[in-house]
Amino acid sequence: MPAPHFPSEFGEETILFDSGFAAPQLLPSLTPFALAALTEHREEVLQYASGRGQPHLREWLAEWMNQDGCALTPDHILVTNGAKQGIDLVCRLLLDEGDAIVVSAPTYFTAIPIFRNFGVEFIEIGQDAHGFDVDALETALDARAADGRELPKLIYNVPEFHNPTGATMSAARREALIALADARGIAIVEDSPYRQVRFEGPDEPLLKALDRSGTVFHLGTFSKLVAPGLRIGWIAAEPAQVARMIQLKSEGGSSPLIQRIIYEFARSPDFSAHIDRVQAAYRERRDCIVAAVARELPEARIAVPEGGYYVWLTLPAHVDGDLLAAKAGEAGIHLIAGSRFFASVGAEVPRHHVRLAYSYTTPDQIENGVRRLGAVYRSIAGQ
Ligand code: PMP
Questions:
Q1: Pocket of ligand 1, candidates 61, 81, 84, 103: which has the most ligand atoms within 8 Å of its Cβ, to mutate?
Q2: I need a labelling partner for 132 at 20 to 30 A (CA). Which of 103, 205, 286, 331 fits?
């Protein structure tokens, strides 16, 4: 299957709704922080560094998450090369070939091949407007237990501004998920890259903040809030598990230079101003795409996300999202067919969805792209 496109491959008429690239206009100026890192901290940033991550950044991250309701020390934090490496490390820690894991249906499509690398069996659980369906999970776990089958080892979910659906789990669902996972002894992997990219409404509690028994592996990243090219994220987990994952993270540790640049930026006054800009700009793009879809594809249902980078379109049942994505791609409008976000393969995979990312495209490109998408839609939906 084709990977999302890199913007540099295309001219201006091409509209990239397929990838979760950052808006180029929002990439912060990190030059002063890079200069300070390379002069004032020259030896620190150019030497080998600790496998668990730099103490200054781990301290800052623990404090940052504590302001968000957690009770962490720097020993709970492992710095990673982005959230994707976080997913990989948790799998290395917890999984053996043939283990079952729980994912939402649909789920973050890049996580699917990572999980597949570990030879897992997928248990897919649906979602609604309140996010992951915990009752359905309980029913599935009961059925497995009744059949004498092993319980899954982990539950992977994106609790806020879900990729791809945009749904956010309610506080009640989060409490219920923690209680269920605790009762059955199953780890939760909370992948939360969009947490600060919230446009409205109050924060729901982090699963990690509700975690009383060390069940939750929280995955964070600077990719969506600051810049994906930095390739720095983190795992927050029990110190004993962090210690084991350091052994599994065998690439020599994440770059101390980039960690220092991020730390200097994060503790500067520029950081909160940057967060405000990010929220305002992506809110404008979200509003723009929601209005454009309502106008140009009135038959598509769209759940308005309170944050994040994506909208998920539910098309009439007879409209094939794979075909729409393919035809739109030929017309220079790139988006991703919904079927790619399901871990299962075959006839039962729903094909009447598509995902549009609004993060990379300007409001003008969104208007232009959705108008042209509407024309492609009408050509295949027989209107
Ligand atoms: N998890 C989710 C749910 C994502 O949407 C993304 C980015 N598209 C990632 C992880 C990847 O994050 P990173 O760049 O930190 O590897």
A1: 84
A2: 286
> Could you please report the per-residue DSSP string of 221-254?
ESTTTT-GGG--EEEE--HHHHHHHHHH-TTS-S
Distance of alpha carbon 148 from alpha carbon 166, whole angstroms: 35
pLDDT for res 8: 67
Output the pTM of the full model.
0.96
The dihedral through the CA atoms of 88, 89, 90, 93 has a sign that is positive
Q: Is the CB of 114 under 6 A from ligand 1?
A: no
Domains in the chain, start-ordered, CATH in brackets?
Answer: 7-28+271-381 (3.90.1150.10), 31-269 (3.40.640.10)
Q: Is 159 in the pocket of ligand 1 (CB under 6 A)?
A: no
Q: Which atom of ligand 1 is nearest to the CA of 85?
A: 16
Which residues lie closer than 8 Å to 231 by C-beta, 6 or more apart?
Answer: 81, 82, 223, 254, 255, 258
